[in-house]
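debug: dumping io for the single-chain case to check the tokenizer round-trip. Nothing else runs in this session.
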Amino acid sequence: MKIAMVTPEHLSWGGVGSYVMQLAKNLPSDFEVHLLCLENDGVAPPEDDRIIVHHLGRAKDTFISNNQFQFALGRSFRELNDRYHFDLVHSNHAQMADLLMKLFGSDVPSVTTVHSTIDTQRMGSKSAGLSLSQLETSERMTYLLLPLLRTLERLYMKKCTSLIFVSEFIRNICVQSFGVGENSKIIHNGIDTSMFEPKELSECIERFPMLEGLDNIVLFSGRMIALKGIPTAIKAQRAMAKSDVYFVYAGNGACEQWENMARKAGLDRSRCIFLGPVSYHDMPYLYPLASVFMLPSYSESLPLTILESMSSGTPVVATSVGGVPEIIDSHRDGILVPPRDHEALADAILTILSDDRFARSLCIRAHDKVQSKFSASVMAKRTSEVYLNALENCS
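debug: decoded output
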């Protein structure tokens, strides 16, 4: 079976890019995957003969390139399909990358995975309490074009004939907002558990020598946008009495405003460290250097970074938003805190740092949970079943 997986994201951009690649790599051997995406110099081609990559443009992590990809896909898809004869298109929302194909019709059946919606993204950005000028381009454009985007999203969702939701939370949102998906599958995101696993410290330091000698590292990994709760994390570090705790931020996007915010809060560069973008293939060596992984987001569906950290043996503190409680059982395999509560975030981090036995128990349970419930192989097997059902329904 030939699957055209459609996403403007590439592996180092964000969660959807990682989701698509892990799904493609773990589908059964009788699936041939064609990845339709944007090109990026920093990403090596997949080492898998079943994955054929078609670059439809250059990658920039902006709202504009996402929309440019929609037009590029509309122009290119017919020619690609004539050549390869795709059996199915698999797209992702809230990108709406195949919007034109859905609006104007396509002969190829489709499956759409819903990761988030326009409103869940907007409400997350709004919760940061920042001015419009302080928001990243995609967040700012979502605000400015909200009425248009909502209209297009409603049309898009009504055109989706087969849906997958990454969490119960996001399915409930879509049922309430669009009246779709009530009987659709929930397939939680999965990760490569052999890639994300505890590592030797020396291996990790080789890749991140700037972190050598630092204990009590609190790691954030994700796009450097307001929705991810970075303002709350900065306030949490400022509220800590301990001076030997190091907050390390890794992710794509502009770091300057967050660095400036940290400096204004009195956090110097030695304690509040911004690494910038870290490649997907280096991330398994960053998680084990951290004593705590934090994700203080204001909105999430089912974040891969939490799963990667749990699999890597790093205890997690995250906000109880969206689908995060579907991953973490608080104080059993991680700690959940309310969003925007920097004091609760600081207390949870210090609880883990001050109790090695408790931290180890969280790690053991978290690792076992990811192995059994959130592996890429489990995700791919369940998704392949949706593909087959979608084709049967179209025949």
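debug: round-trip ok. DSSP finds 14 helices and 13 strands in the chain.
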